[in-house]
Amino acid sequence: MRRLVRIAAVVEALSDRTGRAAAIAMPLMVIVMAWEVFARYFLNAPTIWVYDTALMLWAWMGLVGGALALREDRHIRVDILVQNLSARKRAALELLTMPLVVFFLALVAWQVGLATLDALRYGARRPTEWGPPLVLFLLPGVIGALLLLLQCAATTIRAIATLAGHGSRP
């Protein structure tokens, strides 16, 4: 069990690092959007690249940062159902719901992965005036789903450790 808990800690460290790296996209997105406002209203010269760039940064931030949100228990959930449960009951509930989450994430990784490969193979581009490569918008979905799957494994290990009486953190 200790080895599994150490593996969970490594996965959680990866979730932490990738989530914090993805968070860099937020100030970049603000700068890009501020530039558009300045260019449009003060220079009377709107851009063709800001919308796609902001959307791309949002995708990287939101999708790649999802594993950190799961690690820190920040995903949307109905807290009223679990807020008064003991740690062991929460762990049992986690084990019951995790297969559904993993199934959904596996489907996302598979389908978005296929779309990413197609976009790469055919050189697909966004249907906008600027037209950046579509793969830049799809890849964070694949990476994010894979990181979430890893974090689901770590969360499952933590739940099993809690049920086995080994605590939830190393």
What's the gist of this structure?
Helix content is 75%, strand content 0%. The chain has helices at 2-22, 25-41, 50-64, 66-71, 79-82, 87-122, 135-163.
Task: Explain what the structure shows.
The chain is mainly alpha-helical and 170 residues long. The longest helix has 36 residues, at 87-122. The mean pLDDT is 92. The protein is elongated and about 65 Å long. The chain has one domain (2-163). It is built from seven helices and no strands. α3 (50-64) runs parallel beside α7. 75% of the residues lie in helices and 0% in strands.
Please give the structural blueprint:
Layout: H1 2-22, H2 25-41, H3 50-64, H4 66-71, H5 79-82, H6 87-122, H7 135-163
Looking at this protein, list some descriptive labels.
0% strand; mainly alpha; elongated
Mean pLDDT over the residues: 92
Count of helical stretches: 7
What share of the residues does DSSP label as strand, in percent?
A: under 5%
- What overall form do the CA principal axes indicate? elongated
Query: Separation of termini?
Result: 11 Å
Helical content stands at: over 70%
How many strands? 0
Rg, rounded, reads 20 Å
What kind of sheet is the major sheet? none
Query: How many structural domains does the protein architecture include?
Result: 1
